[in-house]
Write a structure and sequence with these properties.
Number of helices: 13
Number of strands: 12
Radius of gyration: 29 Å
Distance between the termini: 118 Å
Strand content: 25-35%
Structural class: alpha+beta
Shape: elongated
């Protein structure tokens, strides 16, 4: 009888297991209870996760990818330090001080990988968090591929800036053949102080900045300084377009071409810059094209001359050789060509040759 009773008990347990698969599964289940992210613009992104398991949770990793143009998908992984337990509640912060900051309107995709001592693994579905500057009540205006955001000034203020952006794109296409390849976002701050408050490492002279990999521009423009603002929009929008179309993993543009195109698309050279250029021509103190290919000097007078010369160099190439050649030059740089090689291929002269021809050009004015 005892053997029969034991056999019946075993059969009962087997039947119960078959009829209750959910109960058995729950004993080894690894469950994500909650996942969230909060932005604290411009300083940090905070990520939180809660999870539980029947066995100790031993490994948690946060994977994230910042929205930006790149040559390959770039995924970062943060290893979370915590005490193993069956119930965990962890957090991790992406500090903008460590990565140099992100612009307003940027986004981050993230997901978690969790593992317990029994070898159970869970990977959450990707979620998104926006890194928006919520200090201000933004209004928006969209035309074509340009999205403009502002919070001070009436509708006509925004419409005038949008018109300046559209005209700048038309001029750039006419002069160089370059066009937007991805939509652009323009954030118009009311003052330069407001703009600097949106940046991690601002410079005192910062009036506008193009985050070319993100397709975002941030500029400080008050309704009373709209004339200056239009020029800055043209300048920064040019940087964004040119970087989109020449992006490659091998080489950057020479600084004189990058800044010269942006200056040229603003319109006629400002009188202050023109004065520095005229004086340098008269004193035979012009900077070589080779030197202008590197980042410009931090000294104000030399920097102003560098911008003025870059404008003049681009003017020389566009007016003397036309839009088709400039577009060919940009496409050659997109292939990762070196500075001298690109000029030789398109124009038949290298940087020293350009320097010589350009000096003759300005001497005739």
């Amino acid at each position: 009888m005892k053997k029969k009773a034991a056999l019946l008990a075993l059969v009962f347990c087997l039947v119960l297991a078959i009829l209750s698969p959910g109960l058995v599964q729950a004993q080894a289940e690894l469950t994500i209870l909650d996942s969230s992210a909060q932005a604290e613009f411009p300083l940090r992104l905070n990520f939180n996760l809660s999870a539980r398991s029947d066995a100790n949770i031993t490994d948690i990793r946060l994977c994230y990818a910042v929205d930006r143009i790149s040559f390959a998908e770039v995924i970062s992984e943060a290893y979370i330090e915590f005490v193993p337990s069956t119930m965990v509640d962890v957090d991790w912060t992406l500090s903008m001080v460590k990565i140099g900051g992100l612009p307003p309107g940027s986004g981050v995709e993230y997901w978690w990988k969790v593992e317990d001592a029994s070898g159970n693994k869970v990977e959450t579905s990707p979620a998104r968090v926006q890194f928006d500057d919520e200090r201000y009540s933004w209004r928006s205006l969209t035309e074509g591929e340009v999205n403009l955001y502002w919070y001070e000034g009436d509708d006509s203020f925004a419409q005038e800036l949008m018109m300046a952006a559209q005209q700048a794109l038309v001029r750039l296409a006419e002069d160089t053949g370059a066009e937007l390849e991805e939509p652009a976002k323009l954030y118009i701050y009311a003052t330069s102080e407001d703009l600097m408050g949106a940046m991690i490492y601002p410079q005192e002279w910062t009036g506008g900045v193009a985050y070319t990999r993100h397709g975002i521009i941030a500029i400080g423009i008050s309704p009373g300084n709209i004339g200056w603002g239009k020029r800055v929009i043209a300048h920064e929008l040019t940087h964004l377009v040119i970087h989109q179309m020449t992006l490659n993993p091998y080489n950057d543009l020479p600084t004189w071409l990058d800044e010269g195109l942006a200056m040229y698309n603003e319109g006629e050279l400002d009188s202050a810059f023109a004065a520095y250029l005229e004086r340098a021509i008269a004193e035979d103190s012009l900077i070589s094209v080779q030197s202008l290919s590197s980042p410009f000097s931090a000294y104000a007078e030399e920097a102003l001359l560098s911008y003025a010369q870059s404008y003049s160099l681009v003017e020389f190439l566009i007016t003397g050789y036309g839009q088709v050649k400039m577009l060919e030059l940009l496409n050659t740089f997109r292939e990762g060509s070196g500075y001298d090689a690109a000029l030789e291929r398109v124009y038949g002269f290298d940087m020293d040759g350009l320097d010589s021809l350009w000096r003759d050009y300005v001497a005739q004015d």
